[in-house]
Amino acid sequence: MRYAAMTLALASLFPLASSLAADTKMMKAVSDHFELYTTDNEAAAQAALTHFETVRTYVLHAFHSQDPFTAPVRLVAFKSAGEYEPYNPKNSALASKAFLEADAERVIIAMATLKKQDYQYGVREYVTALLNKVVPTMPYWLKTGMAELYCTVREENGQIRLGSEPARDFHTTIPTDIDMALVFSLNGGMSRDKGSLDFYAESGQSGVPNAKAGAALANQQASSTVDYPVVLWQLTHMLMFKKEYSAKFGAFVGAACDGSTAAALQQAYGQSLDGLKQDLLLYIKMPTHAVVSTSFRLDKPVTPQVSQLSAADSGKILAALKAAK
Question: What is the pTM of this model?
Answer without folding.
Answer: 0.83
